[in-house]
Amino acid sequence: MVLVSADPCLIISEINADNPRLDTTEFVELYHTSGQRASLDGYTLVFYNGNGNIAYKVLDLKDHSTDDRGFFLVGSVDLVPKPAILLPPNTVQNGPDAVVLYRTSAARYTEKMNVTAVGLVDAVVYMTRRSGGAEFLAEILTPGEQAFVEDEAAHEEDESIERCLLSEDQWGFQLSLPSPGQRNNCTPPAAPLASPFINELKLGGGQVDGLVELTDASTAGPVVMVVWDGKTDQVSVSMDVDTSRTGLTYLTVGKKYMKGDDSGAVAIYGGRAADFPVGSPLSQTQPLDAFVFAGPGNKPSANLTETLIPGRLPYQLSNRQELFQKTKLGFLKGSVVICDDSFL
């Protein structure tokens, strides 16, 4: 997670790395959250290739500044409005890659250098569903956050990765129509959830049962928790949630049904356990919340992941010790920035 102060700051606000035909309108947009002109002296923008994790483009932003509304564009010659720094077509790579904003001596950063977090201000690590392979970049640049998965088919024409205020104090990324030099096409922050969601869980295995913690479900109708098998996409366990009590709800799952060295998912639906009998196939009903996990050397089916958490990746467990740690859910893709909300 990348955090910056709540004072006005410079962030990476939008990236368009892949145009539908020739890549002649690519761009990276920076934004100063004061919404005013700001000097970029001392900042460096570095582009990393996920194949080898080395820099393929370095831009010293000395002597540049944002416009009077806080925006600064780096992009292709055909882009409208015209970028402050012009790039040849097909410069911004499609992924797995990263764009990183640094603030320290520009002499530290050179093309073909290895990826570094020294001087890092903000970073976006991204990949396509086909490419994968951005794990190392994410580990160095946005530790604790997985790479953003760009879906090139999200919109009929073109789309870009845009930073938006996703809650009252957190920024994340979503795909939307490109808006170079303009406010991003963000949906308003969601209202506080009235429906329960997964707050914390502990995977089982060996002699240890699994545990799922849900937020308050007392204002919801019937709610059911379902454990899905990651190999068969079938129901392993379904349990009715007690909605008669206020506060957190805890559900115990038998150790053989939610094993941390395997793959699978936990999902919350409106309904009853009778709607999800053991052995029944994956439901296309959208869950209220879901958590998909993959043990070391395992991965759930692509259908399970895409149905339950579209546009996101399963949580990858890396070692045996991690299997029994409680894992906070609700993480966002890419970096998350706490910053001034004048951006939206």
Summarize this, please?
The protein is mainly beta and 344 residues long. 4% of the residues lie in helices and 33% in strands. The strands form 4 sheets. Strands 6-5-2-1-10-11 form a 6-stranded mixed beta sheet, with no helix packed on it. Strands 4-3-7-8-9 form a 5-stranded mixed beta sheet, covered by helices on one side. Strands 15-14-17-18-19 form a 5-stranded mixed beta sheet, covered by helices on one side.
Separation of the first and last Cα atoms: 21 Å
Low-pLDDT runs: 1-5, 320-344
What order do the SSEs take from the amino end to the carboxyl end, as H and E?
EEEEEEEEHEEEEEEEEEEHEE
* CATH class term of the largest domain: Mainly Beta
Strand content: 25-35%
What is the CATH topology descriptor of the largest domain? Immunoglobulin-like
Helix content: under 10%
Largest sheet: 6 strands, mixed
Organism: Xenoophorus captivus
InterPro entries: Lamin_tail_dom
Protein name: LTD domain-containing protein
